[in-house]
Automatic annotation (TrEMBL):
It holds the Pfam family Mob1_phocein. It comes from the Eukaryota. Keywords: Kinase, Metal-binding, Transferase, Zinc. Transmembrane segments: none annotated. Zn(2+) binds at C88, C93, H170, H175. InterPro entries: MOB_kinase_act_fam, MOB_kinase_act_sf. This is MOB1A kinase. It comes from Urocolius indicus. GO terms for molecular function: kinase activity.
Amino acid sequence: CHRTKRACHLSYLSGSRSSKTFKPKKNIPEGSHQYELLKHAEATLGSGNLRQAVMLPEGEDLNEWIAVNTVDFFNQINMLYGTITEFCTEGSCPVMSAGPRYEYHWADGTNIKKPIKCSAPKYIDYLMTWVQDQLDDETLFPSKIGVPFPKNFMSVAKTILKRLFRVYAHIYHQHFDSVMRLQEEAHLNTSFKHFIFFVQEFNLIDRRELAPLQELIEKLGSKDR
């Protein structure tokens, strides 16, 4: 595979059972500046140095860099979760948890204001639909050059990434055996490591929110020192 490592593993994943992708993929339009940034990200990822790959490219706008990567993480998590949806059911996962100590209740602040307890598949469906709505909102995630990002962009991006983390946490705690059986642990680990290095680089997720996977995060980080 001559393309970047991640482009290869994405094509590998999309060729496997994840053809029934959980949500439609969010495409960044070809020829756009954001598309160029995405290609830059993929090229630097191919070098294998993830700490370097997440750094803001020289002369680039921080909001735009965070926007492009947020879309990319949404697509990656979408694909990873898509491979295990048959194992994540109302019966197997009646609550949205990340191990015995962490349980999440859903609220989006608009349609559902008071947090509701629901099954993991329901929660993740709510979550991914909510994220997609944010990404599709041109006032929040402008795709045209020269259209400014809103003043609250950073707080929106932080909320999206905080919630996407919960999908990784649920997969690791409740479905890692299925991931192993599908021989996808390398893809999951690479994707999660990239995600963690990114949010650490720009301080995007509160440390307390990362607690369910703290040991794993420390392990992944220590290999890179």
